[in-house]
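If you are new to this repository, start here. Below is one unmodified record pulled from the training split, so you can see the exact layout before writing a loader.
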Amino acid sequence: MVYLVAGLSCLLLTTTFYLGGFKPLADRLRSGHESEIDFSMRASQWLVQGVLDRHFALARQTASRTAIRQQQVDHLQGRLSLAALRGFSNPKLADALIANDELLGIERLGPSGERFLQVGLLPDESPAEACLARKDSGIHLLEPMPLGEYPVLVYCSPIIDPAAGWVGSDLLYVNASALKAVIERPQERDLRTMTFGLAGPAGDILFWPRTQAPMDSLEALERFRQGQEQASGHLVRVLDLEGTDWQLFAVVNEQRFFAETNEQLGRLTLILGLLVLVIFALTVATLRPIIRTLVEAHGLAERAQRDGMTGLFNHAHMQELVEREIQRSRRYRNAFS
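And here is the target side for that same chain:
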């Protein structure tokens, strides 16, 4: 019974320490480690946004060239031939390509979809229809496409004349290597732990490190896109990007991400378990002599009551003999024998 009480005391002490100290500490460690996900997401968002903002500025600068825009207005109003427009504008747009290594090609469209100017690398099938549908609603990032050996970002930039209004749009084909570098090497993280990607407005995956990312992360992302219940083991986080309807997402492998924290908590749990065993063993070792003495005393007391060789038993026997002799003496009026 004493050992049982000692064991229950150790169990109560362990439970109190776990609920009052260990569990809050473990939750804080996990929360602190999980904040790294938000930090990495914000850092990647900042890098991606920096690339896009640089491209938006380039598209805005190209579309705002006053001399080329005026030549295009003159052509639309019949005062300038298409050949003259191209002869004047193409060299200037070619200079823009030379000045910016990321810019691969420029295509200038008229309001009816006619291709006025074309310089640099251009796709066989132009996304002119998607661009013209936006008209003068601002610069838009269209769906990326392959262009030769390059993955390219396509920017649609309206050309607005102060007097004539919307007179066409520019299509800029920009090398997406800088964007891919952010996705494939996010702060030098292991892609098996945290995988980043970009998705379009319909949820379709636009950029994803397919050659390096594990398949289970891609499967987790597909389940997330389809609105299915997320299987345990993965977290999916999403952030919006400014100036576009694209989204940055991250797929986190929880087992790998929290491996270091779980290892530290495991070591701490093992140490606490060993401490509880040591406390219990010391308690038992301390109580054992006391318990042994108490048991021996109890045995001696019981033996004193039952063993005929002890003084207590003889005392009771002699008391009985004396009482019997007194009764006999009274009965027969004799003296004690």
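Two things worth knowing about this chain: The longest strand covers residues 150-161. The two ends are 54 Å apart (CA to CA).
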